[in-house]
User: What shape does this take?
Amino acid sequence: MIAVVAETKDGSARKITLEMLAEARRLAAARGGLKVGAVVLGALAAGEADRLASQGADTIFHVEGAALASYAPEAWAEGVRLAVEKAKPEVLLLGATAHGKDLAPRVSARLKVGLASDCVAFEWGAEGLVARRPIFAGKAFARVAWSASRPQVASVRPNTFTPAAPDASRKAAVESMALGEVKARARVIHFEASEGEMADLTEANIIVSGGRAMQGPDNFQLLRKLCKVLGATLGASRAAVDAGWIDHSHQVGQTGKVVNPTVYFAIGISGAIQHLAGMSSSKTIVAINKDKDAPIFKIASYGIVGDLYQVVPALTEEFEKALRE
Amino acid sequence: MNVLVFVKQVPDTETRIQIKDGSVDTASVKWVANPYDEFAIEEALRIRERIGAGKVTVASLGPERVKEAIKYGLSLGADEGVWLKGDGVALSDPLSVATVLAGAARKLGFDLILTGKQGVDYDWSQAGVILAELLDLPHVSVVVGIELDAAARRGKAKREVEGGLETVEFELPAVITAQKGLNEPRYASLKGIMAVKKKVIPEWTLADVGIDAAAVGPESASIRILDISLPPPRSAGKILEGEPRDTARELVRILHEEARVI
Assistant: This one.
């Protein structure tokens, strides 16, 4: 079996869960018809079990208990361990999200097995799974293999695999499990949503990033307007963050977020190597820069040489027009 | 409050990665303390300063060059440094690494362990959390704010997640991994740099930290790197020059109608 630890928000599966189920199905089929399991911890909203089934789960291992009322790594790890004991999977996938990256090392260490983090591709080798993962924020890629212990645990980078089209005829068996009292000495007690309703950088379809040429915090307003028109997420280079113009949570690059959107706009960003590392796997890169020799143009799919203070407002208007039509 | 900080030495982020014989060519690499570990060191120093008592110890596992990362911590104001000799350790296996760190932590004693959320080299993002599991401690990862109540042996930490910040309540002792934004690291003072010269950095072997070499060697690694390759090069695309309005209109046309990505 290939088991996926479902990530849920308010009881509903997040996109990463569907992405992992799709890849799990592909891997299961390539291995002569293995089953796919979904491990769900805590409450599940009405209809979600059917949704997980329609997206590829054959069995749902649903662990519930008072200890799972809010996220607590120790309780969650114990819940996963319980499900693994029952499912005995060869492979266990978690999302390489804030939650999954926090949980996965707990789980793998508890199971005394290896963890490949942030994987972007999988293949079957002679000794089981082989994973491909970026290192140095994407400046290079490593192929990694596990020891003979099972399961092989991997975290999966969001936005990498495409969810399958739901198949309503698919049904899943549900195995309910109760998690007893668990020692949980760290627990989430509060969540504070950040400004706006932008998607997270790591999950964004379109990113608009500003760099040193933004000259100050106020000019980011220009980029926010463009973001709004495109439904994009706002990013920034390290130069802009270190200058204090924008919060570090927006930083893209080797000491920020590594992103892989469909379209990445690099605006007033020259293209320092540590920035390129974090965004060069974007499908389409658009650069806007005054300096036509800026390194960013060497990797850009499309570029405009020009003054961003003239180009960006024009671009915003033109997109508004095009998208209205 | 005794705070233990684990630091790693990594190639500077300006490094252009080159491959030689299937692994990263480190011949001309400039080694620096891992940027996320700098936030961990700074936070440890601030905790000591706030409480006005206690000790900050900086430890690093690896070849002899990692002593530079330890010295860097000492120059900033850490009280003690320990070099954990990496001979025979599967350094590319986070479980093996964390096992050695756990041995050192047990020997050193601590109220709090701080380390970076990830090394900016192999980006595993695992050692800190595995360390917590091996030491049977709670952890909070990717932290941008810490409030400690030393008397009550507990604290609150803010961690970065998609779309906002989570507040996590935790008990001490604990492991916390640092994210950028936690603090603004200080620079070493001349006095600090001079003081390093007088410090003796103990060198500990696996036996010194009570770890069986066979358990953390390449033969028993939980995970291993088969090979490393560079991403396919991206070629330069279409560059537009001219009047801002014209170039903007043309770019929108391309993205919307030709490439159909927006």
The CA atoms of residues 205 and 261 of chain A lie 5 Å apart. DSSP finds nine helices and 18 strands in chain A. The first strand of chain A starts at residue 2 and ends at 5. Chain A has a mean pLDDT of 96.
